[in-house]
What does this fold into?
Amino acid sequence: MLAFDSSDTPPTTEPAIKKPSHGSESYLALVWRRLRRSWTGMAGLILVGLLLLMAVFADFFAPMDPKATDVGFAPPQVMSFHDKDGNFVFQPRVYALSDSEELDPVTFQPIVGMDYDNPRLLGFFVKGAEYKLFGLIPADRHFFGSTDGQPVHFLGTDKFGRDVLSRAIIGSRISLMIALTVVFIVTLIGTTVGMVSGYFGGTFDIWLQRFVELVLAFPQLPLYLALTSLIPVTAPTNVFLAFVIFVMSALGWAQMSREVRGKTLALARIDYVRAAMAVGATDRRIIIQHILPNVMSHVIVAVTLHIPSVVLLESFLGFLGFAVKPPLISWGLMLQDTATYSVIGSYPWILSPVGFVLVTVFAFNALGDGLRDAVDPY
It folds into this structure.
């Protein structure tokens, strides 16, 4: 008989199981990892951060006092790295416009040219118009401007000679504040109504949804114009601003509630919710701890997609004169100067606030699309 030695057989080695390099990640960490893979989502996040930073420190980033006047409808001043002889210089500068004695043969207006003899040097963190940071701290430093405090107009001036860039930067504070406040109120009311309606159901849900449909059935634009016209012109600016926010919020929560109700109807039939009901958990506990965390992903995405629509609505109402009133500044109010075609054709730079609106809409839409894919990759 042949004897086999156990030492002759090769040992069986099982492949080692590779452990993941990272531990268990939370849901927020997974969402952030997916969001970083989306270049549009990251671009939107960066732009949103810059817009909010600009709105918070608007007085610092504005190169001039938004109420200071100069030459009306002055064209934008182009930054140059060349002196009057054409030589390259490291410190940027702008050249003011000066009227010559020659007249245009068509319009008979003085021919405007560059004043190369008096350049205005530019720099960072320069002294300029005084302001109060956060309304409390006196300051006079600005992020960018002329080193000697002379006026510079990178986007030109309006009909009153006010700097368009400074007014657009200051106006971002009002426009974004209105949008964020309205979306916060809409989200709070819409999420609460939607979860309560979808969870309890029955007759309560039927009657509540009929009221929601009644709000959705209103033609919003005529109602906006009718409600905002109720405020007298002599009313304080804070009262008018609060009323505009109230009107936008009162007509905007219904759509959010319908979306949240649909998610809640599906979540109320899941096993762990029924198990919580079976063990005697209160309705408040089930709604807050089981349903609310599961609808928050949809709510966050809906918020980022709803903010651009509020910005566009405020700009449209401001253009019609039914939103912000002077002395407040907003992008929609600035666009009132573009009401006539002749003004746009002669002074196209007053359309600059449209660029701020487009960047804001793109930023929040891109962030919303990126969050939607990161929150629900399927």
